Amino acid sequence: MHVREAYNSSLIRIGPDLLITDNPEIIRAMSSVRSRFTRGDWYNAMRVDVKNPSMFGSRDTAWHDDIKARTSFGYSGKEVPGLERGIDDQVVNLKGLVRRKYLSTAGKTVPVDLARILQFFALDVVGAVGFGHEFGNLKADADVTGYLTAFRAVVPIITLCADIPWLRRLFLNDWMMGAMAPKDTDREGFGRIIR
Known about the structure:
Blueprint: H1 3-7, E1 11-15, E2 18-21, H2 24-31, H3 61-76, H4 83-101, H5 114-131, H6 137-140, H7 147-163, H8 165-171, H9 174-180, H10 190-194
Antiparallel strand pairs: 1-2
């Protein structure tokens, strides 16, 4: 039975300062500008860099609203030089990869893991548009930055720590995050991206 049916509501209080919902409209309202709701401790698990907060991982509502307002132009695509060209170039690279390694013939079927190469595509678009150069995942047909490998390794741990309060306090405090979190000096994974 769904929680909504059990309580006849899609917004349920599960603790003194905790609400849970499965309704996207409520989530949008709770996350909107000037909302009276604040982000819970769960968001601490989404921090990648302790010294430089991200829009997603910050619990400071004033800072979040300020940075969201200042970066909103970039999300519209109008203020991003080379946006279309960066995406178009990666579409060409994606097509090139498929034609180079995964083209089936009448006599031979070559399987392709579309989810895998679309992750490469997404990261190469981010590199081209955000950093001015692709990461090269599509050309190499590999996770050249180690970002996806690191992501797959760390997500189960982050999820566990995010959902269990005592683990969150133990492992996701500033001291532990400073010791374990990615650094801009890392040669692979998240650190290479945050440089």
